[in-house]
Amino acid sequence: MEVAARPKDSIKNRIVDILSNNAILFLMLLLVSVVAILYPRFLTLANFNNILNQISVIGCLACGMTFVLLIGCIDLSVGSMMSLIGIMAVTVANGGREWLAIILPILAAGAIGLIKGGIIAGVNGRLGESFITTYGAQSVLAALALIIQGGLFMMVTATGIFTRIGKGANPAYVFFALIVICQFILTKTSFGRKLLFVGSNPKAARLSGVNIKFYFLMAFMMCGLISGIAGVLLPSRVMSANPTAGTNYELEAIAACVVGGVSMKGGSGSFVNTLIGVIVIGVLSNSMNLLGLSSYPQMIVKGFVIALAFALDVVNKRRQMQRG
Amino acid sequence: FAVASAEAPAARKVFFTNAFFTAPFCAPLNAQAMATAAENNIELTIVDGQADASVQLDQIKTAIDQGYDGIIYFPADAAGSITIVNTLNESGIAYAIIDSKVDASVAETIPVFAGPDNVEMGRVAGRACVEQIGENAKVVCLMGSAGTDPATNRQKGFEEIISQYPGIEILAAQNVDGWDPAIAMSIMQDYITRFGDEIEFLFTHDDGIFQGAQQAIAAAGLTGKIKAVSTGANNVGVAAIKSGELYGSVLHSAKEEGQLGVEAVIAVMDGEIKNGDQEWFKCMSPLVTLENVAEWEGWGW
Amino acid sequence: MQEHILSMRGITKAFGSTVALDNVDLNVRAGEIHALLGENGAGKSTLMKILNGVYAADKGEILINGVPTVFRNIREAMAGGISFVFQELNLVLSLSTLENAFLGRLKSDSRGIIDWKSMTAEFNGFMKSIDFEMDPGRLVSELSIAEKQMVEIARALMLDSKIIVMDEPTATLSSEEIHKLFNIIRILKNKGITIIYISHRLEEIFQICDRLTVLRDGKNICTLDVAETTKPYLIEQMVGRSMDYEFPEREAHPIGEPVLDVKNLFTPGFLQGINFTLYRGEILGIAGLVGSGRSEIARAVFGADKIEKGDFWVDGKKVSIRSTMNAKALSIGLVPEDRKDEGSSIELSVMKNITITNLDKVSRGIVLNRRKEVREAKRMVQELGVKTPSIHHRLDQLSGGNQQKVVLAKWLYNDADILILDEPTRGIDVGAKYEIYLLIYEMVKRGKSVIMISSELPEIFALSDRIMVMYEGCLQTCVENHEGLKPEDIMGFALG
Amino acid sequence: MKRADISRLVKDNIIIIALALPVILLTMTASGFMTVSNIKNIFIQISLYGIVAFAMTISIIGGEFDLSVSSLLGVVTILFTDIAKRVNVPVAILVCVSAGIVVGLINGFMVSKLKINAFVATLAMMLMLKGFALTYTNGRPINFPNPALNAFGNGDFLGMPNITLFFLGAFLITWYVLRNTKFGRNVYAAGGNLVVAKMVGINVDFYKTMLFVILGFATSVAGVLMAMRLSSGNTLFGGDLTMSVVAGVVIGGTSLSGGRGSAVKTFWGMLFIGVLFNGLQRLAVQANWQDVIKGSILIVVVSVDAILAQKIPLSQITTGRKRKEQISALPRDV
Ligand SMILES: Nc1ncnc2c1ncn2[C@@H]1O[C@H](COP(=O)(O)OP(=O)(O)OP(=O)(O)O)[C@@H](O)[C@H]1O
Ligand SMILES: Nc1ncnc2c1ncn2[C@@H]1O[C@H](COP(=O)(O)OP(=O)(O)OP(=O)(O)O)[C@@H](O)[C@H]1O
Ligand SMILES: [Mg+2]
Ligand SMILES: [Mg+2]
């Protein structure tokens, strides 16, 4: 096998390489420095904590969503799932059983995920089927969340463990732990490997003797379980549950995954990508709030940054292509 | 059996399109409307207007086609109500508007509006603010969902009062999408980072928003240092008032509004009010504080 | 000196650290059939993709009729009078055969409204001229791989180009179709059209080509007149060493008790009551024409398709094979004929593709042992001579033949007792084929059994212990492969 | 007719069967369902979204997807009311349609030239448009009480609601273009397999861009009509446009993975949604339960569709060589 060595890259080339390989991160660093100059308080521990606290719920959702995206599907119902789980959790917690209020709703969420996965696996569905099925599930779950408590806003009156898991940096610990565990599952276990293979080419996976239905089922169950965790964290963080709390969270979760580099076609991406995406979007929102941008122009900037991050990424890939 | 039902007058059927059906505020409103309707021998159907004037127009057209006796219309937004009000007027059906006002161009044609005076509510909050912090202070506001009637008008009333005191500065004001406490919490966290302990006063358009913001305030150890006035005075607000986290909240009773809405449409169906009368069944908007909380508890939800 | 209609000079192209082409020249005379030969990964496809603008060359120039030309994309190349049959099938599965045949140049009037009638007429006319029956309205997803290949060929040939590039057009065809294809190629040649022909089937070169160019490891080796050369010499030029035989000598190996019994196998609308037995240590060849149902048997036995009825016995025990998992648990393996769609995931690395069939082997519990996985993957890559910069490269960065080797490696790695190979050597060069044959022998000597489906009769003859012949979904015959058996006998059965 | 043929027929027309069921049930249970005025109502309800749905059908067949239409619709209603108020109606229409096309061009540029994933590109566009509209209006809806326009938006022509005529027009054009033009068939090719389309020399960048331009155009038309119909402009109009429209398209049977589908399917899909919503309201089902039913029906329809598709293996649809029947050369999908 002939492998010719390439001439050593010039320093300038290498710098451009590093920059363009990590376009999103550098974009973020730039933003951070600008904000930090304008608002020195930005770089304080307290704000750092705030950011962690703010991204963790959406981060958990994105983490669950990653499983589903990796297998080439999409789940539009995680937001309403979160609403429903929040209501359940607070109902149980206010009844005094706080541990149960943490565990039971998460298991319920896993079960709901199993049902969704069961349908998708049963019909051999992928993106299209999961889109519609979970869009339907979104409407059912949101309605159930409203029906259960008569559509009321619920305060958390519990005072024990349930209220502590959402305080300070705790949700962030949960989020980071999830990322580490999921990344381990994905890259270091045969389960994760097969999941990735199924996502990348289900036909080939089937002909390799992989039980592809099982992996569709599991991807949705993991997504359910993890959005259940988000559903418990949210009321614990805000100390109230709202039957419409999760509205539109699903799009934000997907955006975070995709900005970080998880592919919507399945089979490509990792939880590290998700982590990056969540942090980028979280820091962006935080800095815009600090800059005093009202929520309207914030949307414009957010959209622009997402597009820009991707454009840079693509330019980078093209450069690499040209140089072989 | 048939004889018995012949004696009682047949129930009248009323259709209610609620633009914000799923909002927590509307849960008690819907429930009270159902109750009042039942008391008055009315069969009430409530549908979700999905915050969209176009959806509501379709619903109302179908309802007119179905031959309902009366319609209660909770507009998603003022501008979008023009066609709907015209449609209602043309059909000759009895109807009442609740909660949010219709567009000025058709306001003169409506028979009755049942709802709060949002501008006045803002004014009440503004006065409470001045009362609390004096004529020199720094304020932040967390407003309701962008573009909605309450968010626009409550802020308008509030600023009307505040603007009379040049010493009071509004540091920042931001809409809270979907009146979501979680979003309110994040915004408040960032306000605290940005302004530190400069913030002396917080005005929120809803007790739920306040409740979210309060978590950020508590986490920063600023409870009590930031005085706050909210709107709603529902259970959430009342609890916060009692615990001292919230100075006061301007009442907006969902129950009262639900009841007034049904009473209003009955009045129109009975012919007591005609199109163009522009009656206003106004909801009360007192400021609920620790002093009078006992009196008003339970009016919210 | 004849005029060169196309000359590529000093072409160099590197992908990352892999130098695919190093200062390569290719001179093609007008009206000739010019063969491009070389091992897997020698750079043939890459050279052609530089010609049509899919890749840009790092260095070098292209002259067409003596005029320097650079096509930036395929559209320009097609407009410039060059058409292509690519190595990988390029069909839109959700469209009809007709539309695929006219893909990219649908006939329409000036307003863009399609003229279905004249396209159908042209297509039917063309198919008739090569004597190949094909319904223009069928969805391409319903065609067998060989039929797909014919659509692909039809598309290029109907284009009326000055130069036609064919990258392994016959890899999936059986001798019947190849015969028909050659007829039409000769007709085209008589019309003065120039053809660049890439193939690993050397006998074809001698049948139709005029001159040839050999590449090895991205470098020019030689350009010759076909008439002046011999097969062994060619092989030596390609592989870099001499090879006496294309096939290893058949060694006697012990054949044991039945391991797989298939009784009364019916598939919906196709297979009609197939019965056969496979013995331990046996190589059972299946021959037949395109679409005769060979792949169908393979897929049914592997549980990949739903069957109507049929019983299976493995090692004398009655078993039910409902899914690929069942089959795998019974230690059956299948190397499917369509490597791109069903055999592999081209976006994943070589290693991930290889180990997927048996992750348990490289993991403790469910946790993967990375060191072991790398070791195993490297071993397989070594054994099959897969040419790849590393086992962590994505599969789509490998040459076609090397991708095929990875698909083979995947099932050899799993070490199944019964291995079904559907066109296993498709697109693999002579040298590597030899290695693969040795591996197959190795397997049966270790007591494994192999079912081998192939459109290359010589291959079937050289390897099989017994040969089954299929015709239109029916099993025609099953004969011992002895000295006296002649290809004509088999063809007789295959033609019905 | 063979069993396979029957199941294929069922499969291809599952949506019509699914549509017939509620219609029959509703005609029996809800009085006044099968009246002209109610049928008109149903059509009015689906007309504006339907216009976008046909454009979305083209783009989904072409393998792309656009989240930004929901924001674009709101932006167009705002532009229209604002400009019509300040300048005049023709200028407003011109500006709106150009805006739709420009947004489509930008989306198309991002997707085809910058190679940004369509989901991301249009998500970014969605945020930018919404932010723009809210900033522009400061979050307040704009009213435009103009009786003539309103009459047009809500009026009839020969007993047919005007907006429904637009809907039917969009349907016919889409149907014809997809079935019989080079443009349409190349869209199928690009959506069926982009790499292949490129390999056979189809100018895929052009087609990708056109998909978004068509969507932008259709959305701007729907937006102008909506502004006329409601005499106002509001950022929130069309909030659920993308999801409803994609649901309608997919329920009809157009595959989200591209390359398959048709305008007829979308027509039935939208009609199905219209009948369902209208029926649930007529039956006076309470709002929350309406959502439960709607959601469940979506799941059931898609599941049945997918299961039927599996039940008939491809090899049964067209038999092997032995029993090969002549099938017209026309594309299957239309
Ligand atoms: N996209 C790519 N990225 C990286 N390397 C590539 C790419 N395409 C081809 N190569 C490398 O270039 C070399 C030449 O490949 P090419 O496909 O031209 O071989 P080939 O002669 O056509 O072989 P085969 O007979 O197997 O088709 C191989 O080593 C291959 O790994
Ligand atoms: N997915 C499919 N849908 C419909 N028909 C199919 C499908 N796959 C194969 N067929 C048809 O079934 C018949 C048998 O195909 P099969 O692939 O078993 O043939 P084969 O002998 O392996 O030949 P080939 O060399 O074409 O692979 C052919 O007529 C083919 O057109
Ligand atoms: Mg090749
Ligand atoms: Mg075959």
Protein traits:
heterotetramer, C: 496 residues, alpha/beta, Rossmann fold, 6-stranded mixed beta sheet, D: 334 residues, ABC transporter involved in vitamin B12 uptake, BtuC, 4 strands, 74% helix, 2% strand, globular, binds adenosine-5'-triphosphate, binds magnesium ion
Q: How would you describe this structure to a colleague?
A:
The complex is a heterotetramer of chains A (324), B (301), C (496) and D (334). Chain A has 14 helices and two strands. In chain A, strands 1-2 form a two-stranded antiparallel ribbon. Chain A is globular, with a radius of gyration of 21 Å. Chain B is α/β, with parallel strands linked by helices and 301 residues long. In chain B, strand 4, helix 5 and strand 5 form a beta-alpha-beta unit. The N terminus of chain B is likely disordered. Chain C has 496 residues and is α/β, with parallel strands linked by helices. Helix content of chain D is 74%, strand content 2%. Chain D is globular. Chain D is an all-alpha fold and 334 residues long. Chain D has 15 helices and four strands. Chain D has one domain: ABC transporter involved in vitamin B12 uptake, BtuC. Chains in contact: A-B, A-C, A-D, B-D, C-D. At the A-D interface, helix 6, helix 12 and helix 14 of A face helix 6, helix 12 and helix 14 of D. The complex binds adenosine-5'-triphosphate (2 copies) and magnesium ion (MG) (2 copies). One magnesium ion (MG) binds next to helix 1 of chain C.
Q: Spans of chain C of 5+ residues with little confidence (pLDDT < 50)?
A: none
Instruction: Give the rounded overall mean pLDDT of chain D.
Output: 84
Q: What is the quaternary state of this protein?
A: heterotetramer
Strand order of the largest sheet of chain C: 6-7-8-3-9-10
**CATH architectural category of chain D:** Orthogonal Bundle
CATH fold-level topology of chain D: ABC transporter involved in vitamin B12 uptake, BtuC
Ligand inventory: adenosine-5'-triphosphate, magnesium ion
Provide the CATH top-level class of chain D. Answer: Mainly Alpha
Average pLDDT value of chain C? 88
From the spread of the alpha carbons, the general shape of chain C counts as globular
The DSSP helix count of chain D reads 15
For the terminal residues of chain C, how far apart are their CA atoms? 50 Å
How many E-type strands of chain D? 4
What is the radius of gyration of chain D computed over CA atoms, rounded to a whole number of angstroms? 21 Å
Fourth CATH level, the homologous superfamily of the largest domain in chain C? P-loop containing nucleotide triphosphate hydrolases
Name of the level-1 CATH class of the largest domain in chain C: Alpha Beta
Percent helix range of chain C: 25-40%
